[in-house]
Amino acid sequence: MSHENVSPDLIWNIVRGNNSYLTKRRNPNVQFSRDPLNLMNKHSRKYDGFADRKAIGVQPGPERGVVLLTKTTKSPNKPAKLVNQTNFSSSTSRKTYRGIVSSTAKRGYRSDLRAEAVARASAVRNSQRKKKDYPPKKPRSKKEKEAAAKAT
Questions:
Q1: 27-36 contact pairs (CB < 8 A, 24+)
Q2: Stated pTM of the model
Q3: Is residue 28 reached through a cis peptide bond, with omega within 30 degrees of 0 on the bond before it?
Q4: How far apart are CA 66 and CA 8, in angstroms?
Q5: Among 13, 18, 105, 114, which residue is least crowded by beta carbons within 10 Å?
Q6: Which residues are bridge partners to 33 per DSSP?
Q7: What burial class does residue 100 get, using C-beta atoms within 10 Å of its C-beta: 0-12 exposed, 13-18 middle, 19+ buried?
C-alpha cells in the first residue's frame, strides 16, 4: 500500500501511541518527539512531521547557520529523497528568517507553522552565538578586598 493513498490522520492514529520518535516522561506526564520535522518537539498531531505529507523542520547547520528541512510529496516510498535540505548561512538573521518564510510560503507548506519555524531558527542562531567574556568581578566588601590583597 502506498503512503499517498493513506490519510495522514489515519497514520497518526495508528502510530501515535508507539513510534521511534516518541519520548515519554513520567513526572509530569508529558510526551516529547525527537522527529527532525517536528518544530516544537511536542508529541501532538499539530506538530507531527512524519505523518504529514508536507512538513517543515529546522536544524543547526554544519558549522554555523540553519538548515531548513522540507518534506516533499513527489516520492513518498523513497525515504532518501523524501526530505530536502536548504542551508541558510547568511550573515544576518533577518535574511535567514525571510528565506524560511518565503521558501515555505511559495511551496504551499502550512502557514500556521511559519512562526514556529522562525522561532526555532532564532533559537538555533542564538545557541550558535559566541559567549561573552565578562571581566572578573571586583571585590566590593571589606572581606573580599582583604582576601584579594592576600591572594596577590
A1: 36/69, 36/83
A2: 0.78
A3: yes
A4: 28
A5: 18
A6: 22
A7: buried
Q: What is the pLDDT of residue 123?
A: 93
Q: Kindly tell me if the per-residue pLDDT of 2 is higher than 60.
A: no
pLDDT tens-digit map of 44-97: 999 888 888 888 999 998 888 899 999 888 877 888 888 889 898 877 888 889
Query: What region does 43 belong to: left with phi over 0, alpha with psi -120 to 50, or beta?
Result: beta
- For cell 518534506, the residue is 71
Whether the CA torsion 119, 121, 122, 123 is positive or negative: it is: positive
Query: What's the pLDDT score for residue 144?
Result: 92
How far is it, in rounded angstroms, from Cα 71 to Cα 46?
15
Closest CA to 4 of 39, 59, 52: 52
In this structure, how many other beta carbons lie within 10 angstroms of the beta carbon of residue 86? 12
CA–CA gap between residue 151 and residue 52 (Å, rounded): 63
Residue with cell 493513498: 5
